[in-house]
Amino acid sequence: MAEQRSGVQVTGEGTVFKLLKDDNQGSRHQRFLIELPEGQTLLVAHNIDLAPRINKLNTGDTVAFHGVYEWNAHGGVIHWTHHDPAGRHEGGWLKHSGKTYE
């Protein structure tokens, strides 16, 4: 992520510091901002048409992730945090409070 590369499969963990409204244009995405231990911030865009929503997500919660990182000037975006129904792409996931969302 520090190399400003995009399209990279990554795994990590961060603390939720802001919950955003869902993106309902096209595939629906649950969106929230996390801060990594080193201080970098990321937007998590979790496709809730393909994976369950994280209910009871709050600021201050820890979320682990495995997905695709896309660099931007604000820190970046993590997406593909779900399975691939077509089986052509490595599946991703989110983990929150002991439950895996994929």
Automatic annotation (TrEMBL):
Pfam families per the UniProt record, alphabetical: DUF3465
Protein name according to UniProt: DUF3465 domain-containing protein
